[in-house]
Each structure stands twice: as C-alpha cells, then as structure tokens.
Amino acid sequence: MKQLLGMLKRPANRRSFLKSGIVAAGAATTGVGLLTAGLPSAGQDLGDRLSKGDAAILQLLLAAEIIETDLWIQYRELGGVEATGSVSQPYITALQQLDGDMPQYISDNTDDEISHVAFLTAFLKSKGQQPVNLNSFFNLAPSKVPGVPQTGRLTNLKKLSVDTSWWGRYRSKENPDLGAKDFPQAVPSLLERQFTAIPRDSNDLNDPNRIQAIADTAGFHFGFIEQAGTSLYATLSQRVTSPEVLRITVSIGGAEIMHFQVWHDKAGNANAGNPAPFIVFDPVNKSTVTFTDLTTNQPELLQANLIMPEPTDFIEGLPEVSIIRPTGPGQLDATGAINGFIADGLFIGQPKAFTELLLDLASEADAAKREL
Ligand SMILES: [Fe+2]
Ligand SMILES: [Fe+2]
Questions:
Q1: Helix count (H) and strand count (E) of the chain?
Q2: 75 CA distance to ligand 2 centroid (A)?
Q3: Distance from the CA of 256 to the center of ligand 2, in angstroms?
Q4: Ligand nearest to the CA of 249
Q5: Helix, strand, coil % (nearest 5) of the chain?
Q6: Ligand 2 centre and the CA of 43: distance in Å?
Q7: What is the whole-number distance in angstroms between the Cα of residue 237 and the centre of ligand 1?
Q8: Label partner for 73 (CA 20 to 30 A): which of 67, 84, 104, 237?
Q9: Range 272-277 contact pairs with CB under 8 angstroms and sequence separation of 24 or more
Q10: Residue 7 has what pLDDT?
C-alpha cells in the first residue's frame, strides 16, 4: 500500500499502472450485427444482460475510445512528460509555450483514454458481449522521430484539417441544436488545408518556427477531440436504458468534459502577446497556417479567456442557460462525431472498410432508444 501511495505521488508515474496499452479486445474483427446478436428485445426482462440499444451505444463509445487512445499515445510519446529530455524536446518546449504543464496533461489525458478502453472492454465482456476489435486497422505509419516505436497506428496526425468552430460555439449565445451554425473559427487556416500536429521527423524538430506551429496545431486539436467526446457522451446518454450504463456514460462523459475544458484554456495561449500574426509554411503538406493573438483586442466570440460556456438558448420558452452543446440528434451524435473525425483527416490512409465499420457502429448507436 505504501509503495502504491508512493507511486501515486510521483507525477510522471502517477498512473503508470494504466500504461499497458490498448487492451486486446477479443479474437477477430466482427461485423456490427454480430456484436449485438442474441440480445434481448424491448420489454424483455434484461437480468444481467444489456439491451440492444445499450450494447450498440457502448460498442460505438469503445470504438471512439480506441481511436482517442491511439492518437493520445502518439502525442504522449513525443510530447508527454516521459519524453522530456528526449530527441523530441523541441516539441515539448513548443507545447510549453501554451502551458508549462502541457507534458503532464498530455500524459494524463492519455492514461485516461487507456482506462476508458480497458473499462468499457471489461464491462462489455462482463455482460457477455464481444467488444469491438479494430486491431486489424493499426497499419498507419508512425512519426519517424528517433525513439518513437515503429509500430502501425490507427490514426493519422500528419494531415489534419482542424475545425476550431467549437471556440466560437462556446462563446456564442446561439445553440447549434436550435439551428445555429457558422460559428467563428479560432484558427480559420487550420480547417482550410492539411497540417501535422506531431513532428514527423528531425526536420520538423530542427525548424523553430515549424515546430512551434506544429505544437500550436496540436493545442487546438486537443480541444477539437475532447469537445467531440463531450457532446458525444451527452447525446448518447439520452438514449441509454439501464441506470448502470447511464452511470457509466455520464461519468466517463464527465471526464471528457474536464479534458475539453483544460485544452480550451491552453489553446488560447498560441501566439499570446505577439501583435504580429505567426505565419508558418509547411513544405511537406504545402500549406500555410496563421495563428493570431487571441488574448488581446478580440471580439467576444474569439476572446481567449472566455472559456466558461456562455449561457445559450436551450429549451424553447425557457431562459438561456450555461450548458455543454450540442447534445441533440444530428449534431455530434455518434454519426456526427465519426464524420467529424473523418473530416478532421484522422483516418487518411485507412481503407474504406474501416470508416464503413465505424459508421455502421455509429448508426446502430444513434438508432438506440431508451426503453422504459
Ligand atoms: Fe475517453
Ligand atoms: Fe477524451
């Protein structure tokens, strides 16, 4: 016990017992239909089993968590506290322009995602379910920075088109669930072209401006990923039947909200205090990104320190209220979140079968109905 407490106190090793990687989730990849086969239909006594809808929701959330885990591991091995002093130190130093604690936060966010995968996998198994298995899709090339394990990856962080409209959405009084759209982007150029959020090789590390732009891109990508998780869990929770599953989705979903809020606060420090725009050309993707100072002389929809959710329209006829959003169908529900990941460029290089599997899982989750 003493030893465990000692381990918990040391920041770098605080949760090292979780760093066992992605839990192998069964034998072969199975089709979506098979995942929910043999489940009870509506109105049946469920006993210890899951309803079809609850199983579909948890399978989709597990897939999303496996995706999150893969991308966070890539960030951790280059920018996490464990990488301090390694070849990728210029990336860490650049990330610390956003906040001195970025490496620790990156490592902890990664641990959290690993725990989400392990927990959802174990829970599904405990209910007699075969958890979704994406192992056959870990084939994308990792960063070539020395020290990075040259193993196949699930997500591509080198050609991202990061949508930063969540920045304007959380500062606006308008709610996307009530039809509002076209929220201002924090960094419009990030959406228009493709950028890398990790150093691809030593060339990226050795160019001071380029590595700063890569770290700034990562900072906004962190917020993009976690705002999606925030809305996804809240949206699907409304379709859950079992109180136990609801407890799981609101509790893990709460951790996603905490992640989002941290990254929301940090991203606004990109180019802080510099009156001149920070403009960097990436010769590999042949794209130019521009970061402006969001901390000074900005309109309310862009001002960096307005990170608390602005009260917004929510339910017709009732007052504006401070809430996470969107949480309604057709927004960042399962299909919306997966389509958002696809548009983000996370799956560039993956076969069509991969995105089809994800979209199948998503449509089954979105079709779930709360059974009373
Ligand atoms: Fe997660
Ligand atoms: Fe997350």
A1: 12, 2
A2: 13
A3: 5
A4: 1
A5: 50, 5, 45
A6: 33
A7: 15
A8: 237
A9: 272/296, 272/304
A10: 41
Whole-number Å distance between alpha carbons of 29 and 271: 44
Question: What is the mean pLDDT of each successive set of 10 residues along the chain, which is 372 residues long?
Answer: 41 43 38 52 62 98 98 98 98 98 98 98 97 98 98 98 98 97 97 96 98 98 98 98 98 98 98 96 97 96 97 96 97 98 98 98 97 82
How far, in Å, from the CA of 258 to the mean position of ligand 1?
11
Euclidean distance between CA atoms 298 and 317, whole angstroms: 32
Q: How far apart are CA 270 and CA 302, in angstroms?
A: 13
Residues 6+ apart with CB under 8 A from 115: 15, 18
DSSP 288: E
Token pair belonging to 138: 């870990």
Q: Which ligand is nearest to the CA of 227?
A: 2
C-alpha 233 – ligand 1 centre gap (Å)? 10
Element spanning 282, H or E: strand 278-282
